[in-house]
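Researcher: Next sequence.
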Amino acid sequence: MSALPASSREWHLVARPHGWPKPEDVALREVPVAEPGEGRILVRNLHFSVDPYMRGRMNDVKSYAPPYQLDRPMEGGAVGEVIASAAEGFTVGDHVLHGLGWREYAEVPAQHATKIDPSVAPLSAYLGVLGMPGMTAYAGLLDVASFKEGDTVFVSGAAGAVGSLVGQMAKLKGASRVIGSAGSDEKVKLLVEEYGFDAAFNYKNGPVAEQLAAAAPDGIDVYFDNVGGEHLEAAISSFNPHGRAALCGMIAQYNTTEPTPAPRNLVMVIGKRLRLQGMLVSDHAALQPRFVQEVGGWLRSGELKYNETVAEGIENGFDAFLGMLRGENTGKMVVSLTR
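Model: Next structure:
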């Protein structure tokens, strides 16, 4: 076994943010690296993920994921190479997916690591299209929103890691029309020209309800919500009877400091007999084999496309997180530690 590094840098949460996270809420600290304990592996992280849900974990509130602890490293998806192993079934040189991101080196319990094959796709893809975002898109569209061939689908945050995949999956599954919203004209162009959306609009260019009604004159049947707020209200107005919404995220509200009003048109849910359902990807593990088979096939055939926005170096990890919250990424935001 080659000599291990003496130290590792990792991002710690040092204060609970109020509103938008600030640089003084976190600290990049150096800690010693030791041999892995029994049943554990030491991983050199090559890429780690920054995702919207992490903002909620910075708050000290009960939720589906436990809050980050102060003065402890933050967590999240990561892929890396095993450099030391005290666990059966893992050897030096294996590549793994695990949940201890935000750091250069991670001592991971073997039962919480999954071997991945770099010959199938670039390692970073296991944090995006072949990972949690891809599975979220797949399960949310097919399971939660009960998509069926011929549906008209609206996706908010459609140029992001999840939304860009939802729209393409809907087209591949036979949607009659797919509409996306994004935060720049460049992203709108990407949605139509690269991802194959039938229509898209920049939500900053005017009221969402008006732009959606123009893009979907015959209404929508499915809404995949990554944004909440004005987008959800607009979708309710545009829904056809028996429409279904998969409520995946509400990034427009993650950094608010005051309660936000509910959609003003919620009464329409009754007359239209709508179904608005929240989702967590962890509830849909049974879909995993089908997801891997079908999405893997689409990737091999070139029918499914994906983009990544890459921040180089662990020192840029927190800036990448803030950029993702501001919508500066196209596709999956990844922090790469390979340089």
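Model: The CA atoms of residues 50 and 321 lie 5 Å apart. The first strand starts at residue 7 and ends at 13.
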